[in-house]
Amino acid sequence: MSISLFISAIIFILIAARQWLPSAIRIWHIMTFGAIALLLMRQISLKEAFFAIDWDLILYLFAVFSIASALYDTGISEQISKRILSVKHPSMVLTSYVIAMALCAAVLTNDAAAVIGVPIAIMLARNMKWGLIPLLIILCATVTIGSMVSPVGNPQNILIANAGNFDNMFIVFGQWILVPAAITLLVSMIWLKRFLKTTDIANYEATRNYRKQNEIGQKWPALLSAALLLLFIVAGSVLHNVNSIYQPTFGQIGLAACLPIYIVSRERQRILREVDWPTLFFFISMFVVTGSLLKSGSLQFFLEVSGIDLAEPETVAFVSFFASQLFSNVPVVEIYLKLLHQHDTQTLMMLSAISTVAGNLFIISAASNVIVLQQAEKFGIKPFNFWQFFFLMLPVSIASILISYFWILW
């Protein structure tokens, strides 16, 4: 076993055992310490680590987190929760919440939807007397599944959209993934709804607003940035095949969209402080860890010895699912794309769907799970632990894998 593979295994074990570690130790601390350890042991150089990081993705996430933070400051979470609660009937309240968060994930990425969705979950749990922990887990499942249908729904889809060079990436993702995503979302809601009846009064008492929304005077810069992000992404997709027009990257699109926030808004300093920096550090460290793992040659050696064809649908599903449990889906997709010899549509869609729904099994499997957990802690909530998440999400994971696999194969 290489040192890189050994360190990766330790990172997974520590995250799984986090509930027994001191509360001050967060998931991003563990990943960052792992990356630092690999650098100190010279498993990867600083230059190699720098180029192992997908900076375009990091810039896009920074922009999306900025927009999500600014949108929260406009009171959008409170407005959405009031609109949802006006429905009254419990089943319709839950359905409205799930649909709203799934759409938010498809447009603004699952990570941004997680930021916006946590305070909504708190308000719904208080008013409906639902258990907050299962509602937060429903949020994790919803933003993961909702992000499947869009090329900008999650970081791994962005990587796949760039690699696929599709004529119209929105149509391609819709044709291949919309139906299994809708079925999976329905199945997961039916399963997880049964756990909402247990209330957690201690969590309600612990909650607190960590931002004072009534101090916000300007709302239009955040709304303009969100509209620009959607407009730029759609325009980029439509103009993708026009050779004479410059094709901006996702990172450049994100930075251009968030300019109104940082140029015009009087809240720019607070928004910058409240960007989800821990998650960005988590991603940066994760790219360093996987870069070291790729450099070690352990994975390449295993593939050469086993004779596995990475383009086979069964292999794509198996490897992307189980590897995502160890290293999270974003770096797994990045490594997989580098090891693939050809990028046909079915292979890429299988990789996208399975690596995304793989995030439903463990907390570490998707960064959006980590964000929900970290956002809940900002509100003074003791969120779900590793095993609570696993046992509730295991049936969802099995259903989502089977539905996605057979639909895309068919």
From TrEMBL:
The keyword Phosphoprotein does not apply. Keywords: Cell membrane, Membrane, Transmembrane, Transmembrane helix, Transport. It is a multi-pass membrane protein. It is found in: Cell membrane. The keyword Secreted does not apply. The chain crosses the membrane at residues 28-45, 57-76, 96-118, 130-149, 169-192, 220-239, 245-265, 277-296, 316-337, 349-374, 386-408. Residues 17-338 form the Citrate transporter-like domain. It comes from the Bacteria. Pfam families: CitMHS. Its main location: membrane. This is SLC13 family permease.
